[in-house]
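anyone seen this seq b4? input:
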Amino acid sequence: MNSSLNAARRRWELDEARTDVVDVLVVGLGATGAGAALDAASRGLSVAAVDAHDLAFGTSRWSSKLIHGGLRYLASGQVGVAWESAVERDALLRFTAPHLVAAHPYLLPLTPAVPRAQAATLMAGYRLGDALRAAAGTPRRLLPGPSRLAAGRALALAPSLRADGLRGALLSWDGRVVDDARLVVALARTAAAHGARILTRCRALALAGDGARVRDELTGDEFDIRARAVINATGVWAGELTPSVALRPSRGTHLVLRPGALGALRAGLHVPIPGERARFALVLPQADGRVYAGLTDEPLDGPVPDVPEAPESDVAFLLEVVGTALDRPLSRADVAGAFAGLRPLIDTVDTADTAGTAETAGAGRTADLSRRHAVLRSPDGVVTVVGGKLTTYRRMAEDAVDAACPHARASRTARLPLVGAGPVRPDTPGRLARRYGSEAWALRDLMRRDPALAEPVALGITLAELVWSVRHEGALDAGDLLDRRTRIGLVPEDRAAALPAAEAALAYP
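predicted toks r here
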């Protein structure tokens, strides 16, 4: 079966879902849910996967774009979580998504705020992380080791650093995905290629161990999807469908800085947060010229919104922290946009990653909570997967399917290439290769057939890419195109300028 997702395929697969009984129903199409759909479908199970909104509508599109080896977890003694992260990073870099995930350099500037003893401790941590890289099997050609740079070299990579008192920098490398939402799209399309029904705009109203009551959000029609096993992968919203699951959501905010705000930045930055032992603000230059800066870790009180907002207090905090390392402090005018995501954190789990119940301790900071995931089974048989992080989505999905379908064959996804992971033609432009991999030739073919599609929309993105998203990536409206298939919408004025092009792509024959 082909991997293309579009409105026509959605219509006929919705019709099939009304009458068939599937082996697995997955609710939620973020990274973990799309990963669970792929894991189950690649084992030969019949799968339906639904989401109330769109692919990567929730937390998955609001990450720091890091595919990391868990250095922070080593610092807090979570060796198992760090090892799992290193193993999953290796899978993405080498086997499943090498077109979307690659190594990226990061500098930790050695300013007067970083004492020599702390610098030595941090370098020791980097070397431990490098040992995890080697143990996980990741070759150094894909992920170089850490080193210490002189001040001049550090300033060459990050000219915006404050030179006064700079002793140099610690250089480390970690994985980064070009776009977290595109990773989810690749997962969903690969699942579809293995026969999974990927149904966006299909809201689960109620779950049971044998299926769900759902509503087509485009028509308002309600019907039942029957299944032999049900996986709740709705992340921070999991408790709304499975009330026995108790979470402590945490908000993480990022700033979108205007191109040029930090000069010709050639590496990411780790900026120590004053008063914290092992927490850093991240500065992440993007290929489109924008720079992301994050990230906060604040508890969320009250109802969980569909799209969280970044409060001005978070914006001010990040500007202040990042500014401590810069020659010129950042101002509010440097901020073109901001976004916030919600982490589905758990306090304690009465299990070892398989089945149990989550308890809320109700005390302590969300920043101190473990990022370990848990797979929980409710009394009615629904399996819920919560916690974790983007890097370990595949392991979370595998554990969820193992719990929901204990008699299924073993998972295949650790070495299963995602859509686009094949060889890239030598003459492929770098930006297309990084976003589409082996499918980039099809984008160029579209532009050759109709040169008007080669017209840029924003940030180097062409109309052909928007048309491709409608035909093959399940985009149903302008929001899907501007906010998830591309990230034009992170800056409001860019979104407004690109809206006519998105509407034209939706109407393109």
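The mean pLDDT is 93. The two ends are 23 Å apart (CA to CA). kinda curious what u guys think
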